[in-house]
Specification:
The structure holds two protein chains of two kinds.
Chain A: H1 2-11, H2 15-43, H3 47-50, H4 65-70, H5 88-119, H6 125-137, H7 140-154, H8 160-184, H9 188-196, H10 201-230, H11 233-238, H12 247-257, H13 262-296
Helix pairs in contact in A: 2-13, 5-8, 5-10, 6-8, 8-10, 8-13, 9-10, 10-13, 12-13
Chain B: H1 3-50, H2 69-77, H3 79-112, H4 117-124, H5 126-129, H6 132-142, H7 149-158, H8 170-198, H9 203-210, H10 215-240, H11 245-252, H12 264-274, H13 278-312
The chains are: A mainly alpha, B mainly alpha.
C-alpha cells in the first residue's frame, strides 16, 4: 500500500493531532461495531441474565443452549417459546443452495456483460447500461407483487429454481458494473498484442482478460452472494414453506410471532452472519478495488 | 504451418473476424438482457397493467379495466398516502445526507489513522454483512421497552427503571428506524470515500502547504472537489438500494402503530397483501418505482459522465 504510506507521512507531523484523530476513530468504530458484537454475545449468555432487572452487564458465564435448542438438541432448560422446533437445517440448506447457484450464474452473465461494456463501442451502450441499473433499482417490494402472481401461475412459487432465477436477474446488473471496472483496469495493449498474434476476440477474452479479472470476479461474486443471502422482500413473498424458505423471511416470521425469546433469535442471527463474515473477510481488498477502479479513471 | 501459408490466409481470416465481431457484443450481452427482461421487465409491465384494473386477491376471476382510478384514489382520496410519501422523502433525504457526512468524517479519520488502519477498516465493514432484516431485528431489540439495550443503559445510569416505548412513540419510532438505516449504510459510504482519499494525488496538497493553506481550505478546495467521482459512485450504489429500508421497517414496526412509521414501501405491502387490494398496491408500487428511478438516474448520470466520456476521450 504505497499510497497509504505517503498519506501516513503527510499526516505524521503533529503527534497531538494524531492521537486525537485515532481516539475519535475508535470512538466512532465503537458505536458501529458494538451493536454487532452485542448480538453475538447475547446468543451465548445465560437466559436469566438477559431479562434480569436491574440489567446484568458482566456475564457470570456462557452457555450454548440457545444453539442446541435451535438445532433441536435436548438441553436442561427445554425449548424456548418457539412452538415446536424450527427447521433451521432446511433454512440453511435453502439459503446456501439459492445463494451459491444464483451467484454462479450471475457471475457468468455479468462477466460477459461487463466485458462488453469495457471493451466495445456500440450504439446505445449507455442506454443499455442505464436500463440495467434501473432494473436493479426496482424496489423488491414492487417487483414482489407481479412475481407473486406469475410464480403462482407457473408453479415457480415456493421452489428453489424460482428463487434462483429471481436472484440471478437481481444480481446481473451490479455484477456487470463491477466487472466492467475490473476489465477496464487491465491494459488494452495486452488484448491488442494477442490480436496481432492472430487470436480472435473471443480467444483473447478467454486467454488474456478473463484470467486477469478473476480476483475481481471473486469480489463481485461476494457482492452477489451477500445480496442473495440477505434479500427479504422477494423471498418473503415467493417462499412459503421449509422447501424453499430462506433465513431472512424465517427470521421475520419467528420474531413476529415469538418475541419472548430474544436469545434464540440472536442465535439464529449469528448463524445467518457466519457465512457473510467469512466471505467478506476473504475478499475485502478486491472488493474495494472493484468499486473504485472505474471512478478513478474518470 | 509455414510463414507462406499464414500470409496467404491472412486477409480471409481478417474478414471472418470482423463479421463475427460485429455480433459479439450483442451475443455476450444476450443472457443478461434476456433474464432481466424475463424476471424484471415483463413482470413490471404486468403490474403496470394490473395497476389500471380492479384486480384483487380475494376474487382473481373478475378483472375490470378502470383506467387511472387507482392512481387518482391514491393521490387525491387517500390521506395515508401523502403522509407516507412525505415521510419517505424526509427519510431518504435525512438518511443519505447524514450517511454521507458521517461517512466522510470516518473516511478522513481512517485515512489519517496511524495505528490499526486495516483492523479499523475490517471492523467498519461489519454492518455491510448484516441482512437489512437482521439490522431491523437488532435495533428492534435495542429499542424494546422491557428488555432493550437503550432502556437498560438508562436504568444503569440513572438507577431507576425506564420502560420507554421507543418504537411506539411518534417522533422516536421514526428516529429509531433512521438510526438503524444509518448504522447499516454509513460504513459502505465511509469505505468508498476512504479509498478515494487514499488515491488522491499528493502534489496539489504539497503546493497548498507551501502556500500556507489551512486544513479547512485544503479540504474545501482540494479534497472535496477531487473526491467527487467517488461521491458519485457511492451515491449511485446507494441509490440502487434505498428500498432496503423496507426490510428494516417491516421488522421494527411494520409501519405501525397506526401507520405512524409507514413508508411508501410498507404501504405497498399493506395495500396489496394485508388489505388484499392488489391493483391499488400495484399502483402504489409504481410510485415507489418512479421515486427509485429518479434517484438512480440522478446519480448514474454523473457516474456515466465520469466513466465513459473520460475513458472515450483518451
Amino acid at each position: 500500500m504505497n499510497r497509504t504510506d505517503i498519506h501516513k507521512r503527510r499526516f505524521r507531523r503533529d503527534r497531538w493531532k494524531n492521537t486525537i484523530n485515532d481516539l475519535l476513530l475508535w470512538l466512532v468504530l465503537f458505536f458501529f461495531f458494538i451493536p454487532a458484537l452485542w448480538i453475538i454475545l447475547t446468543s451465548i449468555r445465560i437466559r436469566n441474565e438477559i431479562n434480569a432487572y436491574p440489567p446484568v452487564w458482566i456475564p457470570s458465564g456462557f452457555s450454548f443452549d440457545s444453539y442446541k435448542i435451535l438445532f433441536g438438541m435436548p438441553t436442561p432448560e427445554g425449548a424456548f417459546g418457539l412452538g415446536g422446533s424450527i427447521p433451521v437445517i432446511d433454512y440453511a440448506r435453502n439459503s446456501i443452495v439459492i445463494a451459491l447457484v444464483s451467484t454462479l450464474f450471475a457471475l457468468i452473465f455479468g462477466t460477459l456483460a461487463g466485458y462488453v461494456f469495457s471493451r466495445f463501442r456500440f450504439r446505445g451502450k449507455n442506454g443499455i447500461f442505464l436500463t440495467m441499473m434501473l432494473a436493479r433499482a426496482v424496489p423488491g417490494i414492487a417487483l414482489s407483487l407481479p412475481l407473486f402472481i406469475m410464480y403462482a401461475r407457473t408453479g415457480l412459487s415456493d421452489t428453489l429454481p424460482g428463487m434462483i432465477i429471481t436472484y440471478v436477474a437481481l444480481n446481473v446488473p451490479f455484477t456487470a458494473w463491477l466487472m466492467d471496472g475490473f476489465f477496464r483496469a487491465i491494459p488494452q495493449e495486452l488484448d491488442e498484442a494477442a490480436r496481432i498474434d492472430g487470436c480472435s476476440a473471443w480467444t483473447a477474452f478467454l486467454r488474456i482478460d478473463l484470467p486477469l479479472a478473476l480476483p475481481g470476479a471473486a469480489a463481485s461474486g461476494i457482492f452477489a452472494f451477500l445480496t442473495s443471502w440477505n434479500e427479504f422482500a422477494l423471498a418473503n413473498v415467493i417462499t412459503r414453506t421449509p422447501t424453499s424458505r430462506t433465513f431472512p423471511p424465517a427470521l421475520f416470521e419467528f420474531t413476529g410471532q415469538f418475541v419472548s425469546d430474544w436469545r434464540g433469535m440472536t442465535a439464529m442471527s449469528v448463524l445467518m452472519l457466519i457465512p457473510a463474515v467469512i466471505f467478506v473477510a476473504l475478499v475485502q481488498r478486491q472488493l474495494m478495488e472493484g468499486l473504485t477502479s472505474g471512478a478513478t479513471k474518470g | 504451418m509455414t510463414v507462406q501459408t499464414l500470409r496467404q490466409n491472412a486477409p480471409r481470416k481478417q474478414r471472418r473476424i470482423q463479421l463475427t465481431e460485429r455480433h459479439l457484443p450483442l451475443a455476450l450481452l444476450l443472457p443478461s438482457i434476456l433474464i432481466i427482461l424475463l424476471i424484471v421487465g415483463f413482470p413490471m409491465l404486468y403490474s403496470l397493467y394490473l395497476s389500471f384494473t380492479n384486480f384483487n386477491l380475494t376474487s382473481p376471476g373478475s378483472i375490470e379495466f378502470i383506467g387511472l382510478r387507482n392512481y387518482v384514489t391514491l393521490l387525491t382520496k387517500d390521506p395515508l398516502f401523502w403522509k407516507a410519501f412525505g415521510r419517505t422523502v424526509l427519510f431518504i433525504s435525512l438518511a443519505v445526507n447524514i450517511e454521507f457526512l458521517i461517512g466522510l468524517g470516518i473516511a478522513q479519520l481512517m485515512a489519517r489513522a496511524i495505528r490499526g488502519q486495516s483492523l479499523a477498516r475490517t471492523l467498519m465493514m461489519m454492518p455491510m454483512m448484516f441482512a437489512p432484516i437482521l439490522v431491523g431485528f437488532q435495533f428492534k431489540w435495542f429499542f424494546n421497552a422491557q428488555v432493550g439495550l437503550v432502556n437498560n443503559i438508562l436504568y444503569s445510569l440513572t438507577g431507576e427503571p425506564h420502560f420507554i416505548p421507543w418504537l411506539i412513540d411518534t417522533p422516536m419510532g421514526f428516529i429509531a428506524i433512521l438510526i438503524a438505516e444509518i448504522w447499516m449504510s454509513t460504513p459502505f459510504m465511509a469505505i468508498i470515500l476512504e479509498a478515494g482519499i487514499l488515491s488522491l494525488p499528493q502534489e496539489p496538497f504539497e503546493a497548498a502547504e507551501v502556500d500556507g493553506a489551512s486544513g479547512w481550505q485544503k479540504f474545501r478546495h482540494l479534497t472535496l472537489p477531487m473526491l467527487m467521482p467517488f461521491v458519485y459512485t457511492a451515491m449511485a450504489i446507494r441509490s440502487l438500494d434505498i428500498a432496503r429500508a423496507y426490510d428494516i421497517v417491516s421488522i421494527m414496526t411494520g409501519g405501525g402503530p397506526g401507520n405512524r412509521t409507514e413508508l411508501i414501501w410498507t404501504y405497498v405491502n399493506r395495500l396489496a397483501f394485508t388489505g388484499k387490494q392488489f391493483a391499488l398496491g400495484s399502483a402504489m408500487s409504481y410510485i415507489t418505482v418512479i421515486l427509485s428511478f429518479l434517484f438512480t438516474y440522478m446519480f448514474f448520470r454523473n457516474v456515466l459522465k465520469s466513466r465513459w466520456e473520460g475513458a472515450m476521450g483518451e
